[in-house]
């Protein structure tokens, strides 16, 4: 059986939808953050699939830069979540609606 571009795009769309559902339905900041990362990786999969089937490296170079930016995002995002948790003792979104001290 030959795995075509449509298979990769189907998996990418499925991962993106699962991540979107996690962002919409969940209330825990860590789960929302992981869902956002899942959506980002779904886009990366689509970039690599298009790059592979078009026989150029543009998509793979784009993924390299996206992963680099995502690593910095993880460091900053997790630091913010930890700081919010230490201050409020919760990681639920509805408890963080006001950012007053």
Features:
single chain; 101 residues; mainly alpha; Helix Hairpins; 0% strand
What does this entry look like structurally?
- With 101 residues, this protein is mainly α.
- The protein has one domain: Helix Hairpins.
- The chain is built from 3 helices and no strands.
- It has helices at residues 5-25, 29-54, 58-88.
- The longest helix is centred in the C-terminal third of the chain and has 31 residues, at 58-88.
CATH class: Mainly Alpha
Number of strands: 0
Q: How far is the N terminus from the C terminus?
A: 60 Å
What gyration radius follows from the Cα positions, in whole Å? 17 Å
Quote the beta fraction.
under 5%
3D shape: elongated
Backbone structural class: mainly alpha
**CATH topology category name:** Helix Hairpins
What is the mean pLDDT? 89
Order of helices and strands: HHH
Number of helices: 3
What does the main sheet amount to? Answer: none
What is the correct CATH architecture? Orthogonal Bundle
Put the structure in a nutshell:
By secondary structure, the protein is mainly α.
SSE diagram, text form:
Elements: H1 5-25, H2 29-54, H3 58-88
Helix pairs in contact: 1-2, 2-3
């Amino acid at each position: 059986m030959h795995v075509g571009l449509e298979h990769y795009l189907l998996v990418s769309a499925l991962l993106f939808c699962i991540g979107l559902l996690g962002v919409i339905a969940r209330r825990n900041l860590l789960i929302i953050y992981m869902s956002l990362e899942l959506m980002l990786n779904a886009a990366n999969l689509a970039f690599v699939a298009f790059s592979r089937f078009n026989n150029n490296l543009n998509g793979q170079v784009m993924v390299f830069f996206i992963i680099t930016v995502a690593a910095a995002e993880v460091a900053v995002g997790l630091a913010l979540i930890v700081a919010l948790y230490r201050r409020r003792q919760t990681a639920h979104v509805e408890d963080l609606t006001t950012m007053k001290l």
